[in-house]
Design brief:
By secondary structure, the protein is an alpha/beta fold. The protein has one domain: TIM Barrel. 40% of the residues lie in helices and 20% in strands. It is built from twelve helices and 15 strands. It has an eight-stranded parallel β-barrel with strand order 2-3-4-5-6-7-8-14, surrounded by seven helices. Strands 11-10-12-9-13 form a five-stranded antiparallel beta sheet. Strand 6, helix 6 and strand 7 form a beta-alpha-beta unit. Helix 4 packs parallel to helix 5 and helix 5 crosses helix 6. The relative contact order is 0.14.
């Protein structure tokens, strides 16, 4: 979906296809048919943006076979779909029964992360619509925090500088400007937007910036205005923003609240949990760990890294951090000029919700994704953006 900002620029809105992960190119093509096109039809649009997630094998097939890349481009066009952004965070296995810590491998100290992201950039350059020259790729924020020492940090920085040089060469060759956004996430070496400033300043290349995920921002109790002001002052570009909402528990000391939270403690994804205390931010790596006796202070609200559907906050006594998303979106695109032109709804946890909240069919999933996009569409038009055909 495209929107005209009051300054005349185009803002793109997509949804991320990691909600129906596929490891192979055939699986990606099936996604377009079975999921993406039905969402477009529900929204009554001739064109819908999708943020593709391409696992290692699918990306390799596309970058080594020009005919396969042309075929994917034709399939997108035929189904009324377009791609200006990729999710390059998960490498493979995102549909596994247990993902947890595996999603952070390989990290930016591993040469395979550089090779994979380079391949994604080459693929994206071939998928961008004819009238679009800028593409974005979100990626993990360097590494998970453990076993990430100074030597690995320097290796990661060197890899990102090398990537920037490759992206320069790619633009010279294709005319397509591809940028990368590190996506701060709780528990990683870059946990907050503030944590991103120092390493990105050292890297010192405007092709490497930040992907602001509003669920992660909220989980770490970051104020959107403060966070975005700091990035702006440091001249760190916001390459893209993933629009998502975290799970919020206002009174985690109450037994009924803990019971409600326990329903979201599931075995597939990691749900880092945080609380803001007078002594600073405290947290655990997963929701189940937080629910153990005395594992986390419970005098103040908890937030868990669980991407809940934007249009459907969980039932009381829980809620979501949708207000943080609204504030962030106002700042990102509500000013005289957008801070980013790439927005992506990223609720990949539909099938990890408590059983009674999960979609029971492809049709119900498409209904839910369309409802999320419709909510964001309304927020954007309320901010003065005009939806384009």
């Amino acid at each position: 979906m495209r929107f005209r900002h009051p300054d005349g620029s185009t803002v793109h809105l997509a949804y991320c296809t990691n909600v129906h992960p596929a490891e192979t190119l055939d699986g990606v093509l099936a996604q377009l048919r079975d999921h993406c096109e039905p969402v477009r039809r529900r929204l009554g649009r001739d064109r819908l943006g999708i943020g593709l997630w391409l696992a290692r094998d699918a990306a390799h097939a596309l970058v080594t076979d020009p005919s396969a890349l042309r075929g994917l481009r034709c399939e997108l066009d035929g189904r009324g779909l377009e791609v200006v952004t990729l999710n390059g965070f998960p490498y493979e296995g995102f549909g596994a029964e247990e993902v947890k810590y595996r999603v952070y491998q390989p990290d930016w100290a591993d040469p395979e992360r550089l090779d994979h992201t380079t391949a994604l950039a080459r693929v994206l350059a071939g998928l961008l619509p004819d009238d679009v020259t800028e593409g974005s790729i979100s990626t993990l924020p360097l590494a998970w925090r453990t076993a990430y020492d100074d030597a690995r940090a320097e290796t990661a920085r060197t890899a990102l500088r090398t990537l920037a040089e490759r992206l320069d060469a790619l633009q010279e060759l294709t005319g397509r400007d591809i940028r990368i956004g590190l996506e701060p996430e709780p528990g990683c070496s870059v946990e907050t937007t503030g944590d991103a400033i120092a390493p990105l300043t050292v890297i010192g290349h405007d092709r490497i910036g930040v992907c602001v995920d509003t669920c992660h921002l909220a989980t770490s109790f970051e104020d959107p205005h403060t966070a975005l002001d700091a990035l702006n002052q440091a001249r760190i570009p916001v390459v893209k923003s993933q629009l998502s909402a975290a799970l919020h528990a206002e009174h985690p000391h109450l037994p009924e609240v803990r019971d409600a939270l326990a329903a979201f403690d599931e075995p597939r994804f990691l749900h880092q949990t945080r609380t803001a205390t007078a002594a600073g931010l405290r947290g655990t790596d997963d929701l189940g760990e937080a629910l153990r006796a005395d594992a986390l202070p419970d005098a103040s609200p908890w937030r868990a890294h669980f991407h809940v559907p934007l249009h459907a906050a969980p039932a009381a006594p829980l809620t979501s951090t949708l207000p943080v998303l609204r504030t962030a979106l106002t700042r990102l695109v509500g000013g005289p000029h957008p801070l980013t032109r790439h927005l992506e709804v990223e609720t990949y946890t539909w099938q990890a919700l408590p059983p009674e909240l999960r979609p029971r069919s492809r049709s119900q999933l498409a209904d839910g994704i369309a409802a999320e996009l419709a909510l964001v569409r309304d927020l954007l038009t309320d901010l003065g953006l005009k939806e384009l055909p």
